[in-house]
Amino acid sequence: MKRFRFIADLTDAKMLGQLIGPVTGITTATLSGIGFSGSTLYRVGVSLETGNTRNFILKETSLNNDWLSLRSHDAIGRETALLEEDKLAKVWNVLHCSYVAFAREKDRTGLLMDDLSEYLFPDTREPIDVTSEDIIIDKITSIHALFWDSNEIRKLSWIARPIDYLSMLGPREHKEDDYCPPPEKLRSNISEGWKLALQLLPSATKNVLTKPAEEIFEPWKDLPVTLLHGDLKIANMAILPGNKLALFDWPATGRAPCSMELGWYLAVNATRLARTKEEFINKYRSLLESHLQFSIDENTWHRMKKLAVVTGAMMLLWNKALGWRSGTQKGKDEWEWWKDQLQDAIT
Question: How far apart are CA 32 and CA 338, in angstroms?
Fold first, then answer.
């Protein structure tokens, strides 16, 4: 993986030639309508002297103009920081690394990745297959075990913290939105969804979710922390031949109890789960303990599950409320699951 000085170098024939051989031509095309961040994606086609073609994805981000970067307090460009951090390099022993080169200029970052479009999951709201889900859980728990209670990641000041996850999409005001708000439709959905959710919830649950993130996290601050990807959407994954898992979009990578990642996964991938949530949680625990090579005591695991539920709710309960309002049975069932689990989690 190569760091270039300038973002423009990532699509420069001479510079790319140093990595992949002599280049005879480069084409770029903007990819639109992908994701909710302020990043811009391009498909880059590179013709080589050999007659072959290499396809890449270029991601450019201006941190000061990206609402997610601002809300998660990313002042460095965590995705590029991850790639040049020696303490985290062993993550690529578990995952397939699709990154080829990167560059950082002040508040702007650029990442050049292999184009793995053919291996992406279909963009649907249907469950993925059990085999793929098994691969995902195995790789994620392997990473969580690899960095379990690691002093190495405790020294990293630039990665996201638990309070960043709890506040990023929460119901409180975000002063960053005054000068860099989310896309209007998303902002409206978050606002309307939280208003509805807080109307539907019991007062005790509402009171907990509207506290500052620091207070919400207080009961779990003693739990072991590990490295989190931070945005484990199915859309951010690809499974390659040989059961290799590639993960994209690391701007929310952080240090937190692993169940915060579990909670987000359950919330954001609700329609993609191959199992029930309870079965998924049990599978996650089984593989995590296998990689850790020790058992998590029942009291600690019970607390971890509570944090998973609170995290998933703080990040996406607004969406669950909108699903309830839609009137579909799936929407109602999803809302009821989170509401019931929350009542248990806050007691």
Answer: 33
